[in-house]
Amino acid sequence: MTLFKKLLFFLIALVFNSALTYSATQDSTLVFKNENNILKIENGISIFRDPAKSLTIHEVIGRKFEYLNQKVPNLGITSDKIWVKFTVDNQSLAENLMLVVAQPAIDSITLYRLDNHKLYASSKLGKFKAFHARLVNNPNYIFPVTIAKNKKETFYISISSTDQIQLPISLGTPRVVLVNDNSKNILFGIYAGIIIIMILYNLFISFTVKDPSYIYYIIYIFFVGLTQATFQGYAFKFLWPDSPWLAINSSFLVPFFSGITTALFLKRFLQTKIHTPKLHIGIDLFVFFYFIALGVWISGAHTTSIKCLQTLALFGSLYFLYVANVIRRKGSRPALFFLVAYTIFLLCVVIFVLRNFNLIEYNLFTSYILEIGSVIQITLLSFALADKINVYRKDKEQSQEQALKISKENERLIREQNIELEIQVNKRTEELQNSNLTLNLTLKELKEAQSQLVDAEKMAGLGQLTAGIAHEINNPINFVTSNIKPLGLDINDLYDVIQKYEEIDPDRDIREQISAIDRFKKQIDIDFIKTEINSLLSGIGEGAKRTAEIIRSLKNFSRLDESDTKPVDLNEGLESTLVLLRSTVPPYIKIVKDLQPIPLVECLPGKINQVFMNLITNALHALKVKENPAEEEYIYITTSSVADHVIISIKDTGSGMTDEIKQKIFEPFFTTKQVGEGTGLGLSIVFSIIEKHKGHIDVVTKVNLGTEFIITLPLNIQ
Predict the structure, then answer these.
(1) DSSP per residue over 411-430, as a string?
(2) pLDDT, tens digit, 9 for 90 and up, residues 576-604
(3) Domain finish residue from 172, 203, 219
(4) Would you say the C-alpha torsion 7, 8, 9, 11 has a positive or negative sign?
(5) pLDDT digits over 545-570, tens only?
């Protein structure tokens, strides 16, 4: 908020600047007569500007100073180094005096004394030094000086500052100066106490009403007080006495944060986003330009950045007044409080500026006019926040009364609606009961249809399995039947040989009869018959063996006599399935098996064999319908075990599937086969069987690269 002081001061300075004229060099000696009073160094000051900041005191002494006809010198914001010259004639009884420059915002100040053309040692002070390096423990710059009785002494003061250069200079004895300083300390202590009390009070209220506006206001009050403490020098003395960096930069940073918190508090307090959305954007723009000024400060252009900050604060304060007035016209009580508080503070700023230009007397009241204005402003805004509680209470009472009326009206409507609702519920209940009967009938029909479709899938699989078994059994049976007839002929020939031996007459020539039999044996080729009989018997045995193998595989596959889970070797189930499907495998399709030793798996063997049958049959179908098949196509069947799971992989080199088809293959009735070739339930049944065994099935497929089904089953279904 103190920024507004400095900005209005800057604006009015532009108006009065033309009226400030420097007369020709004029030497006016100031007379110190009474040691019980303070001598104000007024109307006796000459100045010299050093834009290059390069001249030494010896070079400046010989330069032409210009007399400044002002009670309190006001040199505005300048990057020049200012030299001040004045002469004091001590006609009092005191010799040990104190020279006070009551402007703590000055960055650097150096005092030189000239007596009888002799230059005395300088005293250099400023924010570049820690506070304890001061000659006197005081926020103002105080130089102890000695002026002999009835002697004149000329003082030169060099001043550099990025802030407003305003020089209320005074001279007095240590006792009078310190008494006067104690009065100022007490007044500022009262001001600081008010600020702290307001912060604590609003903090307590914020915990009670849970309104975030109080938090913004507390931060706002803190920076208002910190701004006054900074420009009065108390912040350097008490808050950061060992940090010259903060002392120098606080003249910008503290007003910067003061302006930002003012904007944030204004937005929250007046609810600008709700009441004036367009003007709300202007406040955000103000904050944005504040950060640009911060960037200018960081770049090193301190004087320019302070002028920018003050200009922004000036126009921002006027804009804030305009926003508050617009919202006030809409009937907002907080806006009225804000407008009054802000106007009072700006009036105090105008009084402060008029005092600086000596249009109003410089006294204790006018020197603390900003503190007075800020206290009044903070108090009024606290009243405004307290008034919001009353407004909230009134609104709450009105809303409760309105809610009661609405509640009674709702109660009446509910009674009426309950009667209508009961009628509608009864009507709807009757409709739902009828719908429920229809749905139950439909569900029953769907279950019957599903059962028929599953039976159809089983019959289709059974038909395929029966055809394969018939073909497999027919081959060895044909082999047996085709060997029976030649075996019978050979046996008949052997019977003939035996009969001839039985017909041998002992009374006749035995030798002749044996020779006849030998000739007959050669005629029928008895050696060939022996060999042929062995061959035919071997073929019949092989056919019987193959038939027995098929019957065993069929029994192992079906497991019709087993309805409970039991530990099973899945490799055996795969082998049995392949035996039954052997007749359906074309010559160009090669089945490659890599069946590793795996633990026994607790499962329903018949169901798991049905899974193998469906997946291998699908792989065969994918290879049979493949466009442009290779000379040799493959089905890879592998088994392995990992931890407490068994993994079965069935992979083909078929055409693969797209991602769209892959997402649907386990859906009931979905099939890629031609009409009449499948029911679309095969993989759905596979998925159901694997799920019941607490396993899972994964599909890896890519168009033109084939498909792999990976089944993972736990060793123990429990």
Answers:
(1) HHHHHHHHHHHHHHHHHHHH
(2) 888 878 878 888 999 999 999 999 999 88
(3) 172
(4) positive
(5) 666 666 665 655 555 445 578 888 99
